[in-house]
Design goal:
The N and C termini lie far apart (46 Å). The radius of gyration is 14 Å and the shape is elongated. The longest helix has 26 residues. With 82 residues, it is mainly alpha-helical. α1 packs antiparallel against α2 and α2 packs antiparallel against α3.
C-alpha cells in the first residue's frame, strides 16, 4: 500500500471514530467547562484511537488497546457526572 492511501484511510477512520465522538461530547460539554483532568483524558483517548487504527492496519491484536480505551471512556464519563 502506498503512503497516500494509508494517510487517507487514517483520516477517514479518525473522522469516523474520533471526530464523530468529539461532536457528541461537545454537545454535552463545552471544552471551556472541562477540567484539566478531563482534557488530559480526552487527549489520551485520541492517541489511543490513533494507535488502535494503526494496529488494525497492521492486523495486530486489539484487545489490550480496546480495554485501555474503555477504561479511559469510563473515567471520562465519571468526570462528566460530577
Amino acid at each position: 500500500m502506498d503512503k497516500q492511501y494509508l494517510k487517507e484511510k487514517l483520516d477517514h477512520l479518525r473522522q469516523q471514530y474520533v471526530e464523530s465522538t468529539h461532536t457528541d461530547a461537545q454537545t454535552q460539554l463545552d471544552e471551556k467547562h472541562m477540567s484539566k483532568k478531563m482534557l488530559k483524558i480526552k487527549k489520551k483517548l485520541v492517541s489511543l484511537q490513533m494507535e488502535r487504527c494503526q494496529r488494525k492496519i497492521e492486523h495486530k491484536d486489539l484487545t489490550k488497546i480496546d480495554q485501555k480505551i474503555l477504561e479511559q471512556k469510563q473515567l471520562f464519563e465519571s468526570c462528566t457526572n460530577k
